[in-house]
Amino acid sequence: xxxxxxxxxxxxxxxxxxxxxxxxxxxxxGALLGLVGGMIGIFVMLRDMAFAVHGIAELSFAGAAFALLxxxxxxxxSLIGSVLASLVLGLMGAAAKDRNxxxxxxxxxxxxxxxxxxxxxxxxxxxxxxxxxxxxxxxxTVQLGVLAVCSLIVMVALVAMWRPLTFISVDPAVAxxxxxxxxxxxxxxxxxxxxxxxxxxxxxxxxxxxxxxxxPAAAAIRVTSNPVLTVSLSVAFAMTSVVGGILLALAGSLxxxxxxxxxxxxxxxxxxxxxxxxxxxxxxxxxxAMAA
Amino acid sequence: xxxxxxxxxxxxxxxxxxxxxxxxxASLRFGNRLLWDGLDLDIAPGEFLAVLGPNGSGKxxxxxxxxGLQELSSGTVExxxxxxxxxSRQVGTIPQQRSFDDNTPLxxxxxxxxxxxxxxxxxxLGRAKMRKRVDELLELVGATSYAERPVGVLSGxxxxxxxAAQALADDPRLLLCDEPLLSLDLxxxxxxxxxxxxQACDHGAAVVFVTHEINPILQYVDRVLYLxxxxxxxxxxxxxxxxxxxxxxxxxxxxxxxxxxxIVVVGMPETVTHAxxxxxAHPLQGA
Lengths: 292, 287
Fold this sequence. Notes:
A: about 0% strand, B: 6-stranded mixed beta sheet, globular
């Protein structure tokens, strides 16, 4: 395959106008997931839970693979898998150190189970690969309904917990003194995170959820410390990545996840460059002020 | 001793105004380890009480008891006339300085705002009003100049001023301080301790100040609660910071000197000297 062939596989805008209406479900799902991912990503960063997200994703994958095997709804399967995993983590791994070892134990187990279920599965092989690397183009109206309801639950829960969850995440000592119930909030957050992970898997697949749940928030935090702006940017970045990824994927004949992860990565790189540039300017000004 | 609105040192332990804190027969034990037993203590409005003692003597646990986060093994604890409960609006807390992650997405003003309404559900409404309140508090603690800066880039002293602003937000009747001066430079130590003292004398708050090092706050302290080895001693600094008293508490010979208005304690058992090297409390240890 020469370069121009690869290029036309990655980007080809023939028939674009005809295809677009066919994927409106996927676009709506993508926008919703961008919203959810951008919001919850802030707390994943604040609570230092990137590894937990990855671990939950593997168990969610196992749940989805099992659902595929027995012919049940894949979205429901992945929801059950990830909520179970996040409950285990929330109840057993309060301390970050415990949590990481529990995740380290659960993750290969979940992945192993998932591979077992897929090996037993006799159906279409594209379904198998989709769980790991994303399959949103296949979203039908029923699935869109499930996704929308779950996204709504996650968003309502996050908005309700927003202030006390921020408080216990950044300032646990004062939050405890203020009577914020840190233990119960942490478990509640884990369950919400489990839902969000299961939803994200439908777009980018189990292996790539971090692109949706971490990268946009990590990028936003680099460029601002204003909390409202941080959330807005994080959501904007996540939505740009997902919706942009879907739109670009339509033009080629590849799965959407590489587009989503690449956009999300590029945004992160740009944000880091901005932060680095600012730091340099600040440093120069400080030096100048000291010299003056 | 600096002038203070609290009862004269050495007066009988029954102050005239309704006490802010009332401990009666308070005991606390973890398993078979006794932290303190039979503690009766009233803390009057405007009184500045320093809690001293070696590591593990129950100083921080005392604060947790007053916050309602730790139940007594026996006895009662009342704050402002009611049993201590967690999250009381009557209580402000200044914790030990703990650095924030560089990339914490909060500015100084956001941290103070969390101290005001961070315990409430939902997202914040009424932003203009909140902004005004936060501005007042920042002004009060002298933090206006860095209000918009990320908390991650602030120095320890700057962060502790924000802690003070959080703690003073509700004009508390009881101010609980857990080693708030730890790892601060002298300038910030003075600023923070004078802020705390001001809340006591201008607003009649009772202050309970846990510390390893009494010297930075000596001028403000009305009484000392010294905890050691399951025993305790309460009194004015002059009464407690004496060789006989500390020797008896520790059960080993200890000498206390006063020089230039500073108290120097010599011969502390090792439980204390394990502390952070920044503590210069016992410079002659082992000499």
